[in-house]
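Support request, please re-run this one:
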Amino acid sequence: MNTWIWLYMVTMFVPMSILLIFSPYFTRKTVSFGISISEEIYHSPILKALRKQYALIMTVLMIILFSGCLYLIGGKTNALGTVFPLSIIGIIACSSIVSFLFYSRMKKLKIIHNWNSQQLSRIAIDLSSRKQALRSNWWYVLHAAIIVGCFFFTLSHYDQIPAQIAMKFDFEGNIISIANKSYGIVFMPQVLQIFMFILFFILNYSIRSSKQIIDVSKPEVSRQQDLLFRRRSSTLLLVIGLSVILLLGIIQWNFVYPWDIQILTYIIHLFVSIVLLGIIWLAFTTGQGGSRVAAHNTHAGAGQHFRNDDAFWKLGAIYFNPNDPSIFVEKRMGVGWTLNFARPVSWISLLVLIVVIVGIVVYSSYVIA
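Re-run finished. Output below.
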């Protein structure tokens, strides 16, 4: 197995597989496969066995999928260009199908065992402490400074850039696309940097604006866990955003002082690894809403309460609640946030994001052509 295949496996396939295999262990203790339950039920033998079964099935599927990828590659590095997107599609398809099957099974178990009879919890919304959990938006001044620095560096060295710029390479380092030097080509990384800066700034704001759910049966523990989750998520976004902007800056630096393509590829894989390992760190050490953070309050509730709001979660993953004014809410599967699709602004935000991404792709294709 050559170096490129090992890089793909270590930096992409394995981290994504780990996140998917252990995803049921990252959720809040009041959610199981997208279905609301009590903490007492979450720790029951039947659900422990169900989580193990899910992890085993996903492990087997990921091994089969990766083996299939290696077979299709057949030692030919150039085949990675075709196999890589196919593997991503395969991972998403496997995860979606298995998650749906376990969601359906969990839904039936809740009915069969009459878990709806468990006492519903009263939930408090804490608006006073959620902002203190975030890293200040002033930290993003560093990102902006790097973008400005890259712009003036490239502008001052524009004459040193070769008349033709290599734009695409295959996995063996051979040039497959060349474009004539132009301001559109040279400053394309700035366009991407600005887009990523705005995106991560908005994501950080979404953490600030999403409602903080406090379980009144153990309010202090719940508040501490949620605040730590938000603080770590905000820090991770800061680091990922900085990594992406630095990577685009390195690519722009390469226009002026070309590096060996293999070194540049190693750097790209390094940045991808930082992002994925950061997400894995957050999932394993913190969990959704701080669920994996050890509770230091020994007077916490007995865990017999839960919010039975399954009606607002379509397939356990899509939140649609017209009565909830919130735009951003915690996901039920995995770690992070999702949108309340009952709010028009959620659809508008998605539409704007899609339009901007398509615009960047069209712009890139135009300037290269």
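The chain has one domain: 3-368. Residues 297-304 have pLDDT under 50 and may be disordered.
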